[in-house]
From TrEMBL:
Key word Hydrolase present: yes
GO molecular function, one term: RNA helicase activity
SUPFAM superfamilies per the UniProt record, alphabetical: P-loop containing nucleoside triphosphate hydrolases
Gene3D superfamilies named among the record's database cross-references: P-loop containing nucleotide triphosphate hydrolases
Positions of the Helicase C-terminal domain: 338-485
Limits of the Helicase ATP-binding domain: 135-310
Domain DEAD-box RNA helicase Q: 104-132
Keyword entries, A-Z: ATP-binding, Helicase, Hydrolase, Nucleotide-binding
Name of the featured protein: RNA helicase
Length: 540
C-alpha cells in the first residue's frame, strides 16, 4: 500500500473518520439522496464531509510517469512534428519537448498489449488529434487541460492513460477506494463513460462502476465494497457515498473532470471542491471539454497548479466543422409550425435520428406529446423523469427504436449516440457553450450532421457569440442574424474576447454551399423551408 494505513481513520482532520454514517447527513430532507444529483442549492449539501488535512499525513510515493516514447515519435524531425500539429490544428501550451511529440499512429504508442489489442478491436485507423497529443502528456503523469471539438474522442484520450496508470499501481484490495476517478455532469454520461472504461480496462481485469443518483444505491455500493479500479461518478451521489463511508478516495491518484467547464461552473463547483479535498494533493488531474470559457480558467488552475494545455482548433468558442449550422431568425409564436415543416422536410425520404432541444421540462413534455399525437416516433428526456424511464428512453433512441428525442440540456453534453443526423434547437440555450455541446450530438467521430436553430429577439444578446461561431466554422450568416449583433450585449453568461465589435462579414463560403435543400429553403426567406408540404402535420 502506498499509504501509511496504520491508522486510516487518523487521515482525516477531525480525528474521527470524517464520515458520520447515517447521522446528521442531509437529514433535513426527507428521502435524502437519490433525487436530484446535478445541481443543488442546498448550502448544507455534503457539509458533514470533512476536508482532509493532507499536510498532516505522510504520503508514500506513487508512480505517474509511464511514458516511454516510441523511437519514431522521439526522433521525428521537428518540422515534421510541426507539420502534423499544423495540419491537425494542435496548439500546446506549457511545455515544448520532443518527449511530448504527438503519437501519430497507434503503433507508435508503445502501448502494452492489453491496450493495443483493444484499440485493434475498435477498428480505428488513426488516433484523433486530441488523442495523439493528449496521450504523451497524460502518460507522463502531467496535469493537463484538453480542449477539442465535440465527438473527437476525448473519452479515450483520458481512459487509455487511466488504464495504464492503474496497471502500474499496487492491486486494489477490498475496502480500498478506486485509483482513477472520472467526474461527469450527468447520469447518462457517467454510464456511457463506464462502458468505454470497461471495454478498455476490462481487458486486463480492471473493474469499473458508474455511481450516479436516481438509481438504487445498493448495487452501486456493493460494487464499491468489492473494490473497483475506476469509478465514474456524478458529484452528488459521490459525495453521498463519501459521507457515508461507502467509498474513500485515499488511493485515488488519477482524477478526470470530463466536461470540465460545466463541472467548474456555479452549479457544481462547491461539490467539486469538496471532492477534491478528499484526494491527495499530488494526484494527477486531467480536465476535458469542447469549450473552455475564460471564467473557468482561474478556477481550474486552482486544482491544476502546473499543467499543460492542449487545444485542437480555435482558441475561441468553436463548433465541430463537420456540422452544417442553419439558424432561422423567427418569432416565438412561429416555432411550432416551423418545427412541423422542418420535420416534414428532413423526414421526407427516411426519418433519421434527431434531437430536439427545448428549454424547460414542461415544454419538452408538451412538444414530445404533440409530436407523438401526429405520429412522429418521439420520446423525451429531462430531469423530472425517473431514472428508469431516462435509461430506457435513451436505450431506445440509441437502438433507433425511437428516432426523435426531445430533451432539455440534460442530453446536451458528452452523449455519443451513433447516427444522430440532426439537432434542432427549438429554444436557444442559455449559454453559447451549450449551443456548441448541443449541436455536437451530431457529427460524431468521422460523421457529419446538421443543426437547425430557431433564434428569436429574446436571444438577441447571444447573437454576437453565435455569429462568431458560425463565421469560425465558415457557415452562412443571414442578414437578419447579422443585424441582431448590433444590439447584442457581448455574450450570455460567458463573455469572450475577439468578437467584441461584431464586425463579422457575411460569409458565403459555407462549405456545404447552397446545395443543401434545407439550406436553400432557409435562405429564401425567413419563413423558410420552402413550400408547406402536402402532408403537413399539426400538433398545436
Ligand atoms: N481514434 C478514433 N478514430 C475514430 N473514432 C474514434 C476514435 N477515438 C474515438 N472514436 C469514436 O468517436 C466517438 C466520439 O468520441 P467521444 O464520445 O470520446 O467524443 P468527445 O470528444 O468526448 O465528445 P464530446 O465533447 O461530445 O463529449 C465515439 O463513438 C468513439 O468511439
Ligand atoms: Mg466526451
Amino acid at each position: 500500500m502506498k499509504y501509511n494505513t496504520s491508522n486510516q481513520q487518523g487521515m482525516y482532520s477531525n480525528g474521527s473518520n470524517g464520515y458520520n454514517g447515517n447521522n446528521g447527513y442531509r437529514n433535513n430532507k426527507p428521502g435524502g439522496f437519490g433525487g436530484r444529483i446535478n445541481k443543488t442549492d442546498d448550502a448544507n449539501f455534503g457539509s458533514a464531509l470533512q476536508a482532509v488535512a493532507w499536510e498532516n499525513h505522510t504520503l508514500s510515493d506513487f508512480k505517474k510517469d509511464f511514458y516511454c516514447p516510441h523511437t519514431n515519435v522521439l526522433n521525428r524531425p521537428y518540422p515534421e512534428v510541426e507539420r502534423y500539429r499544423e495540419s491537425k490544428d494542435i496548439m500546446i501550451k506549457g511545455i515544448a519537448d520532443a518527449f511530448l511529440n504527438p503519437i501519430q499512429f497507434f503503433e507508435e504508442g508503445n502501448f502494452p498489449e492489453y491496450v493495443a489489442s483493444c484499440i485493434k478491436k475498435m477498428g480505428f485507423d488513426f488516433p484523433t488529434a486530441i488523442q495523439a497529443q493528449g496521450w504523451p502528456i497524460a502518460l507522463s503523469g502531467k496535469n493537463m487541460v484538453g480542449i477539442a471539438q465535440t465527438g473527437s474522442g476525448k473519452t479515450l484520450a483520458y481512459i487509455l492513460p487511466a488504464v495504464i496508470h492503474i496497471r502500474n499501481q499496487p492491486r486494489v484490495q477490498r475496502g480500498d477506494g478506486p485509483i482513477a476517478l472520472v467526474l461527469a455532469p450527468t447520469r447518462e454520461l457517467a454510464q456511457q463513460i463506464q462502458t468505454v472504461a470497461s471495454q478498455f480496462g476490462g481487458q486486463c481485469g480492471q473493474r469499473s462502476v458508474a455511481i450516479f443518483g436516481g438509481a438504487p444505491k445498493g448495487p452501486q455500493a456493493r460494487d464499491l465494497e468489492r473494490g473497483v479500479e475506476i469509478v465514474i461518478a456524478t458529484p452528488g451521489r459521490l459525495i453521498d457515498f463519501l459521507t457515508r463511508g461507502t467509498i474513500n478516495l485515499r488511493r485515488c491518484t488519477y482524477l478526470v473532470l470530463d466536461e470540465a467547464d460545466r463541472m467548474l461552473d456555479m452549479g457544481f463547483e462547491p461539490q467539486i471542491r469538496k471532492i477534491m479535498h478528499q484526494i491527495r494533493p499530488d494526484r494527477q488531474v486531467l480536465m476535458w471539454s469542447a469549450t473552455w470559457p475564460k471564467e473557468v480558467k482561474a478556477l481550474a488552475e486552482d486544482f491544476l497548479q502546473d499543467y499543460v494545455q492542449v487545444n485542437i482548433g480555435s482558441l475561441e468558442l468553436a463548433a465541430n466543422h463537420n456540422i452544417i449550422q442553419i439558424v432561422d431568425v423567427c418569432e416565438e409564436g412561429d416555432k411550432q409550425s416551423k418545427l412541423n415543416t422542418l420535420l416534414e422536410e428532413i423526414g421526407t425520404q427516411k426519418l433519421e435520428k434527431t434531437i430536439i432541444f427545448v428549454e424547460t421540462k414542461k415544454k419538452v413534455e408538451s412538444i414530445a406529446n404533440g409530436l407523438k399525437r401526429v405520429g412522429w416516433p418521439a420520446v423525451c428526456i429531462h430531469g423530472d423523469k425517473s431514472q428508469n424511464e431516462r435509461d430506457y428512453v435513451l436505450r431506445d433512441f440509441r437502438r433507433g427504436k425511437s428516432l426523435i428525442l426531445v430533451a432539455t440540456d440534460v442530453a446536451a453534453r458528452g452523449l455519443d449516440v451513433e447516427d444522430v443526423m440532426y439537432v434542432i434547437n427549438y429554444d436557444f440555450p442559455n449559454s453559447s457553450e451549450d449551443y456548441i455541446h448541443r449541436i455536437g450530438r451530431t457529427g460524431r467521430s468521422t460523421a457529419s450532421g446538421t443543426a437547425y436553430t430557431f433564434f428569436t429577439s429574446a436571444n438577441q444578446k447571444q447573437a454576437r457569440d453565435l455569429v462568431a461561431v458560425l463565421a469560425e466554422a465558415k457557415q452562412s450568416v443571414s442578414n437578419e442574424l447579422q443585424a441582431m449583433t448590433r444590439f447584442s450585449g457581448g455574450g450570455s453568461g460567458y463573455a469572450r474576447g475577439g468578437f467584441r465589435n461584431g464586425k463579422f462579414n457575411k460569409r458565403t463560403d459555407n462549405k456545404f454551399g447552397g446545395g443543401s435543400r434545407f439550406n436553400a429553403g432557409f435562405q429564401r426567406n425567413s419563413t423558410m423551408y420552402g413550400q408547406k408540404p402536402s402532408t403537413f402535420r399539426r400538433f398545436d
